[in-house]
Structure formats: structure tokens, C-alpha cells
Amino acid sequence: MTTPPDFSLPIPSLKDQAKSTALIGYLRAQPMAAKLPFADYMQAVLYHPQWGYYGSGQVQFGAGGDFVTAPERSPLFTLGLVFEWQQAQAAGLGDEVLELGAGSGQLALDFLQETERRGCCPNRYLILEISPALRLRQQQRLRAVLSEPLFARLVWLDSMEQLLPNAPRQPCFAGGMLIANEVLDAMPITRFSWRPGQLDTVQEQRVACDGARFTWVSTEPSQRLLHALRFYADQWPPMSLPEAPVFAEINETLADWLAALNAALSQAAKPTWAYFFDYGGTSSEVYRPDRTDGTLRCHYRHLAHDDPFVYPGLQDITTWVDFEHTARLAAAIGFIVDGTRSQAAWLLGTDVPDQFTRLMNQAADRATSARIAQGFKELVMPTEMGERFRVLRLRVEPA
Predict the structure, then answer these.
(1) Do strands 389-396 and 336-342 pair parallel, antiparallel, or not at all (unpaired)?
(2) Distance CA 233, CA 199 (A)
(3) pLDDT digit string (tens) for 287-342?
(4) Most distant CA atoms of the chain, gap in Å
(5) End-to-end Cα, the chain, rounded Å
(6) Distance between CA atoms of 125 and 104, rounded to whole angstroms?
(7) Are 240 and 144 in contact (CB under 8 A)?
(8) What integer pLDDT is reported at residue 6 of this predicted model?
(9) Least crowded by CB within 10 Å, which of 19, 46, 184, 191?
(10) Using CA atoms in the order 12, 316, 129, 104, what is the torsion angle rounded to 10 degrees?
(11) pLDDT of residue 68
């Protein structure tokens, strides 16, 4: 099925068009280009080091970029994590923080400055960033803003293997807190069609090239895809299902990724609390039968649409996180699952309401107080991020 191009999106610059064209040429030259797995396509358009959206640093965060994450909306998000950090320290966890994919560096900046203010700085703040361009951008920004003693606590890693005790160049992670904000939603996924829960109806959706444009093509499912979907078999009564198949997505490699993360964290000297923030829901919410086109969404200059073949390498591609399934996989691997909460419930359960009052009382003018109030609303209101975003907390004990 060939989707007509979306001409409502802004036109990229000539430089960006050339970059996207180079990536298209790279994809068309792949051995399986006639029927490329969508996960391979998504890996390339997001993480190719020269042309990928994240890998090359194409992504721009904040009001002037493609989307705004919670740390950019309000420092109150990070203050909630500082509260959790203090609870972790009181519970005797490790004295280090590990952030997966630091984006603009805003969360790290706010976290280090606030823990310095409260007198509870982590011994080290590790950032696992696989994009060389984003890593450099983070280093330049944080070096320019942080004091030398705070900046000296930062350590950048480029692979999970560097967390292990025998890792070269860097000492291993000592345990403490792991933060993954909007990481799971951007991991490469497999696209498929089915009558929900009926595994004999599954068709994998791969990527083909129809002239000058990529398009979807249906193929028989791999055994790996069917194995990943086994948890959903027969979850919905057949009589409640639509006659026509619907589209959906799943991360086939999530279990392997969680296993590698658990193996690294379990070798720390002390326990770790891991926090995963993302938009998503339960299995029944993510795969509900009336969701005919899955949850795959693209973001370009604050415009959301559903065509991943527009401007390859210049736009973000995401899918909802099935927190119920993620927790089930984590438990099977060896994580201790503390459960999930909405972002609003989590924030309101920390000292953020008190911090909000403090910031409002300190506001120098009405414009500042209005900005603080608006940021708080965006984090907790159901119509904003409050209910659409969730947090999963996992715990890891030393092996």
C-alpha cells in the first residue's frame, strides 16, 4: 500500500534535503531493500551516525525544535527525580546516577544544580549517549553552564558494555539511580497487521521502494515476531474483534535489551532504582481492537503525523510503550518490579507540590509565576502529560 506524500509539512532546507536523499540512497542499497524489516529502517533513519535523526544530531529539542520533553517543559520534573534520589540515598543505594539518552542535557543540568543546592550531589552522573553528535552537544552545553566541580562529576559512555566491571576507559557503574526519559518509545519496532490476539492472522509489514518513495509491503511473519506476540494470544474474545485486520507495533528486541541492562546493573556494588518515563499504557490500551492504525507517530517541527517515510532522517518516529508487557518481561529477566503510575500521580507523590509553592513564592514577576504555573500544569494535567505519560520503576539488587 503506497501512502501519498504529506504536503502539509514544512519544506526542509536544501542542506537537509540533500542529507535525507543520501540516507534514502543508503537504504535502497541494503541487501534486503526490496523487503526491508521496518526495525532496520527505523534504526537507520533514527540512529545512523552520519544521516540519522538522533545519530547525526538532527534532532532539536524544545520550543524551537520538533518536540518538547518533560525536562524542557518545567524543572519541576527533575525536582521530582531529585526527591527520589534523596529517598534512594536514605535507603542505602549506590551514589551514582545513570541517564540513558540525555537529549538536550537539560535533565542532567537541573539535577546536578538542584542536588548541589540540597547538598546531595551524586558521586558521578553517567550519561549513556549513543549519538556522537548529541554527546558533543551535551558536553559543550553543560561545560558552559555548570561549575567546574559539578561538570567534573559527569562521565559520558557510548555503549552499555562500559557499565561492566571490566570495561575499558571507564570504571563500572556503582549503583544508585537510572533515568530513562522517552527512551523506550524510540527503540526500533516491528510493524504488523492482525486481528488482535489471533496469531494465525499476523502479517509483518516491511518496507519496499515504489519508484522514488518507500512504502509498506505485507510479508509472512517471522518466528521471532510470533514468539514476541505470544503473550497477547487470545486476549480478546473473537466475537469482539473487527473483521478486517488492524495495524500494530511491537519491540521484538526489548527482552534482550532489558536482559543486557539487568546484567550490567546487577554487577554494581549497590542496588539501583530504575525509572522509565514514556507515553503508553496497558496491553489492552495499546492493542485495543478499535485502534486500527497502531500507535506509530512521527514528529517534525512540532507537527505530528503518521507517515514514517516522509523526510527520512529529518523527523522523529515513536510508538507507545506497553508498560504492562515491559514490566512482565522485566520480572522474567530478574528485575524487581515496583509497578507503574501516571506521571501526574508520581509527581504529586513527591515533594514537587512543595517545590512548586517555593518557586511561585520566589517568582520575581507575574511573567515568571505564569511560566512556572504553566509548566506545572503541562506535567500533571490529564489533557497534557499527566495521564498520557507513565513511569515504571524497576529495582536491581547486586548479583
Answers:
(1) antiparallel
(2) 6
(3) 999 999 999 999 988 788 999 999 999 999 999 999 999 999 999 999 999 999 99
(4) 64
(5) 50
(6) 15
(7) no
(8) 55
(9) 19
(10) 70
(11) 82
- Confidence check: pLDDT of 166 > 70: no
What domains sit in the chain, N to C, each tagged with a CATH number?
A: 14-399 (3.40.50.12710)
The verdict on pTM exceeding 0.90 is yes
The three cell numbers of residue 185 are 518509545
Q: Which long-range contacts (CB under 8 A, 24 or more apart) does 298-304 make?
A: 299/66, 299/67, 300/9, 300/10, 300/66, 301/9, 301/10, 301/65, 301/66, 302/65, 302/66, 302/67, 303/8, 303/9, 303/10
Q: Is the distance from CB of 392 to CB of 181 less than 8 angstroms?
A: no
344, 324 Cβ separation under 8 angstroms: no
Closest by CA position to 260, among listed 88, 396, 107: 396
Chain length of the chain: 399
Q: What is the 3-state secondary structure (H, E, C) of the chain?
A: CCCCCCCCCCCCCHHHHHHHHHHHHHHHCCCCHHHECHHHHHHHHHHCCCCCCCCCCCCCECCCCCECCHHHHCCHHHHHHHHHHHHHHHCCCCCEEEEECCCCCHHHHHHHHHHHHHCCCCCEEEEECCCHHHHHHHHHHHHHHCCHHHHCCEEEECCHHHHCCCCCCCCCCCCEEEEEECCHHHCCCEEEEEECCEEEEEEEEEEEEECCEEEEEEECCCHHHHHHCHHHCCCCCHHHCCCCCEEEEECCCHHHHHHHHHHHHCCCCCCEEEEEEEEEECHHHHCCCCCCECCCEEEECCEEECCCCCCCCCCEEECCEEHHHHHHHHHHHCCEEEEEEEHHHHHHCCCHHHHHHHHHHHCCCHHHHHHHHHHHHHHHCCCCCCCCEEEEEEEECCC
What average pLDDT is seen over the chain?
92
Task: Check pLDDT > 50 for residue 253.
Answer: yes
Task: Indicate the Cα dihedral angle 163, 56, 24, 26, nearest 10°.
Answer: -60
- Identify which of 298, 259, 93, 101 has the alpha carbon closest to the alpha carbon of residue 175: 93
What are the beta bridge partners of residue 303?
A: 300
CA distance 60 to 265: 30
Q: Residue 174 is placed in which grid cell? A: 556503582
The DSSP bridge partners found for residue 247 are 193, 293
